[in-house]
Design goal:
Nucleotidyltransferase, domain 5; 13 helices; 48% helix; 276 residues; 5-stranded mixed β-sheet
């Protein structure tokens, strides 16, 4: 088979996967973007938006990706609308985990108004760390901030937030103000079943998957165009480290059942169907 025929077949397989039906059994939806170097309108880093889901029976699946020009509300709405049209109506969707961007929240509220939104704790803390760079009290402020999410109830977390504001707002007013903005969205997990807390507090499953993508695409440098990037991304999903997207739900169930078998690679049935 010639190279051109292989590329044509790969392009067709990617299109089939990105338009294949999605079973409406997603309980947790992770949303985030990764920047890739693409030679379009000059060599620039362009965001590729990703959606990862956990089904009601604990399977992890990459639902799709979307090459965007930016991470604004229009791009996110277009991407999530494509998932909705493929079958993700949200009948089982309990929570959407994202980085706290208002663009994502607006799109989610439009398509899945019954779903709760959980802002990633890691992104919130990372922004605070960057804002406190060089501050003499940085370590103490960070330690107190982390204590907010050690609370065992939302009421207790809110009390800790009030204490944090009172204690530190004079030390660095802007950093504290930005940190506390929309912080209630990071407490959504406390209103969910306890079994879900460790799974939905952060976007770590998708972040680990992004690290696997970068490990594989960094040697390439820059993609010629979006199609060339699209051809490698499903392969990254299939060969990703099992712990990058392995469901902890299944691990917990095996442990409760007293079984000790190895976790399988948690890859999407939709991706496998594309024969990459």
């Amino acid at each position: 088979m010639s190279v051109s025929r292989i590329i044509t077949w790969l392009n067709r397989s990617v299109r089939q996967w990105l338009t294949s039906p999605i079973r409406d059994d997603i309980e947790v939806l992770y949303l985030d973007g990764v920047f890739l170097r693409i030679k379009e309108r000059g060599v620039k880093k362009r965001p590729t938006l990703f959606a990862m889901g956990i089904t009601t029976d604990g399977r992890v699946t990459i639902l799709g990706f979307w090459h965007a020009w930016s991470e604004d509300a229009h791009e996110w709405q277009a991407f999530l609308q494509s998932l909705w049209q493929r079958g993700l109506k949200g009948s089982c969707l309990k929570v959407v985990v994202a980085d706290g961007a208002s663009a994502i929240s607006a799109a989610v509220a439009l398509l899945w108004p019954e779903a709760n939104i959980q802002s990633c704790l890691f992104h919130k803390m990372r922004n605070l760390v960057l804002a406190l760079k060089g501050h003499p009290l940085k370590r103490l402020i960070i330690t107190d901030a982390k204590m907010i999410w050690q609370a065992r109830s939302k009421a207790e977390a809110l009390r800790r937030i009030a204490h944090f504001r009172q204690k530190w707002h004079k030390a660095h007013p802007r950093a504290v103000r930005n940190f506390l903005r929309d912080i209630d969205l990071t407490l959504t997990y406390l209103e969910m079943p306890r079994r879900m807390w460790s799974k939905i507090r952060t976007n770590n499953p998708l972040d680990r998957f992004f690290r696997e993508i970068k490990r594989r695409v960094d040697p390439i440098g820059a993609f010629v165009d979006r199609k060339s990037a699209s051809r490698i991304l499903p392969a990254c999903a299939i060969h990703a480290d099992r712990f990058a997207i392995a469901t902890v739900y299944e691990h917990d169930q095996l442990r409760r059942n007293g079984k000790n078998r190895e976790l399988p690679h948690a890859t999407s049935e939709k991706i496998n169907s594309a024969h990459f």
